[in-house]
Amino acid sequence: MVVSMPKQQQTPAQRAPGAVGIVRLFGVPVRFHFTFWLAVVWLIYMGASGSQTLAGTALYVIGLFVSVLLHEGGHALAARRHGIPTLEIVMLPLGGLARLERQPKPAEEFWVALSGPLVNAVLGAGLLGGIYATGGTIALSHWQQATDGNILPRLAVANLALALFNLIPAFPMDGGRVVRSLLAARRPVDVATRMTSRIGTAIAALMALYGLLSANFLLVFFAFFVYVGALQETMATSQQALMSGASVGEAMITDYRTLNHGDTLREAAALLLATSQQDFPVVAGDRVTGLLSRAALLAAMAADGPEAFVAGAMDRDFARLSPEMDLSDAAPLMAAGGNCALVFEEDRLTGMLTAENLSEFLILRKIRAERAEAPAPKEPHHG
What is the CA radius of gyration of the chain? Predict the structure, then answer.
């Protein structure tokens, strides 16, 4: 799978939460979610039975995850070819996730999305060719009775299955992105996303129905996974469409309160209660030295007491934006900074962008857009 983020520099806060360890594939950092290792151990434990040894099971499971990793590497290489850096690849129990720096254009998304399944198809075909060239065979008995001797045939078919599985025309699968890229060639991206989501939702409904009738609850779980993926992709694309063409200056708060560098947490708490503001710029004279969030204030109050200074609790490495910056580029930077960023014009603080006021700005923008598209009321007819 592949997901895109607006162009920005990656910071540690933007890395996938829960991901540990790091290796590099084609120069791209690869991180492993802690649940990935739990899944590896569980699959090895469950598979080590009958005629297959523990070592053979481990080799097969590792081969599967290497196939998934190469799948994500295919996405990263295709994205690089189109000038889109990959921020990281995250390995998860249900597969991998390549995070791109920006949303590919429709023609770019087609090849970026298709490259992952193509890698698995080539791997599967290559393994099958090697097996038949050496006199081997593929048989149903390989899955009825897994042994150390049929690891390669099972990996070959598993790669072909991965390719087909990822080509299902539904989000968050690669097939959904391929379909959207084809539809977006003639339609706006948000319209193409909604159309693709409807296709995915219909597929999810059919899967869920069949899974319930056949008591196949794994299929029901997958149907729910597809449905949630379609919903999330639609919401994310709709939000991007609403932010398109808007600047930080249009959405930022310009009426805000600040704290002084020497204020105490007691004074900060009083200001928190007296206003609806949740985050406070901390200033020393004309210079902004930090940002104190509600969560940091409460944590410092509990740990250090009300007479401690805000300077000890504030975040000195806060997100900085400019009023001219595109809102779609600024939103993830704001989110990475704790859902608040300070807006500067040169070195002068001019505003704040928070998750709450961004949400309100988008709601108002959506209302205005819907009213602009609504047909004008007809004039009453007088006989």
Answer: 26
Q: Which of 46, 104, 114 is nearest to 80 (CA)?
A: 104
- In SS3 terms, 178-214 reads as HHHHHHHCCCCHHHHHHHHHHHHHHHHHHHHHHHHHC
**What is the token pair recorded at 130?**
């090697």
Segment (H or E) for 92: strand 86-92
CA neighbor of 3 nearest in space, from 69, 75, 72, 97:
97
As given in the structure block, the two tokens for residue 114 are: 């298709």
pLDDT for res 374: 64
Topology classification of domain 248-368: CBS-domain (3.10.580)
- Give pLDDT tens digits for 125-178: 999 999 888 887 777 666 667 787 888 988 999 999 999 989 999 888 899 999
For the chain, domain boundaries: 1-167, 168-244, 248-368
- 279-284 and 259-260 beta bridge pairing: parallel
Instruction: Give the model confidence (pLDDT) of 78-116 as tens digits.
Output: 999 999 988 888 887 767 788 887 778 888 999 999 999
How far apart are alpha carbons 260 and 258 in whole angstroms?
Answer: 7
* CB proximity list for 148: less than 8 A, separation 6 or greater: 51, 52, 53, 55, 56, 59
- Enter the pTM of the model: 0.69
The length of the chain in residues reads 383
